[in-house]
Every structure is written in C-alpha cells, then in structure tokens.
Specification:
- About 40% of the residues lie in helices and about 15% in strands.
- It has about 210 residues and is α+β, with helices and mostly antiparallel strands.
- It has one domain: endopeptidase domain like (from Nostoc punctiforme) (endopeptidase fold (from Nostoc punctiforme)), CATH 3.90.1720.
Amino acid sequence: MKKIKMTLLGMLSVIVAVSCVRFSVKAQESSYDAVFDEEELEALTERVELKSRLFRARKKQNTKGLLKGTGSYPRRKGNILVTSDAYKNLIPTGHAAIVYSSNSVVEALANGVVKGKNNWNTSKGTCWGVTVSWASNSEEAAASDWCYRQIGKPYNYNYLNTSTRSCFYCSQLVWAAFKDMYGVDLNTSAFGNAIHPLELVGSGETTILYQK
C-alpha cells in the first residue's frame, strides 16, 4: 500500500509539471490563436500606434526617423523592451524583456528564463522601450532583479495562466515583477488574463522612451 501511495504521488508530480512542459509547435500556434483574438490584437495594435504617434509628435520626428529610432534606446536597469516581430514560434507577434544592464536583458524564451543581449535597437525590426510611469529608478531596478531571480525556470505555454510563478512567458515575466512587487497591473485586459507583449506598450501605466 505504501508503495502504491508513493507511485501515485509520483504521478501527481508529473501531472503538475506538465503545465510548464514544452508542447509541439502546432500546439503552441493553436494555443496562441485561441487566446490572442485577431480582431482584438488589431485594436491593440492601433492603440499602440496612436500612443507611438503622440510620442513621435512630442519628439518632433516623423516616421522616416524610425529607421534609426526615435528617443533614447533603453540602457537603464528596469526599463522594458518590446518588439512586434514574430519570435521563434512562441508568441508570433511579439516579444518582451526587461533591461538588466546596459548590455543585457532578462527574457523568457523557449528554453526558459535566461539572460540575453540588450541590442534590440539593431537586432529587431521593430522595438519600443518603455518605463513604468510612476516607478523610480530603484523600483524599476528591483523589478529587474526579481526577473533575474527567475532565471532557469521553464517557458509557460499556458498564456492564460498568469498566476503561476513556476514558469513564465516573456510578457508575463515582466508583468509579474511589477504586479508582485508593487501591486501595479500592466495588463490592459484585452485578452483576459493573458498578457500580449504589446500590452506593455499600450498600458496606461507605461510611457514610451524609444521607438524603432
């Protein structure tokens, strides 16, 4: 009987772990389509573009300047980076990371939460750099440290499960840092609990610093 109980416990552990296991590319795509509604994504993209146009107007620069970028590219710890570029069969229309240093970021990729290069101004076709409007430099830096402590955790393919802290997808990781540390919600609720990378730009809690 004791052996049977131990076996059952082992099976339960496997079942719990499955929520953060990698699925096939086909499963990833269907999961994405089911969560991130195309019409709502178009509406979100329009809101982000409006916010971007206002930013460019303040900088007195038209869209031609976007070849090099408008504003100052983020190098300060805790600033947020977002791209609308398709990213390696994960979220097809975007990726997000948080700046850890002038030359590094923390991000969630297919192999989990890792430290990456802070070179999105040259490596991405599109890029936004944003700051959490009310946060001090030290508060944003602390949020970056929170993300750094998650390095090694697996990728979260269940985009609606933002309450888990055992695995992360890119925008969930950044969102969770500010949510857990300061109680601020960077999610626009466009997709329910799911957090699309562009929501970090479209959020009323963030201010654009840079756009390419």
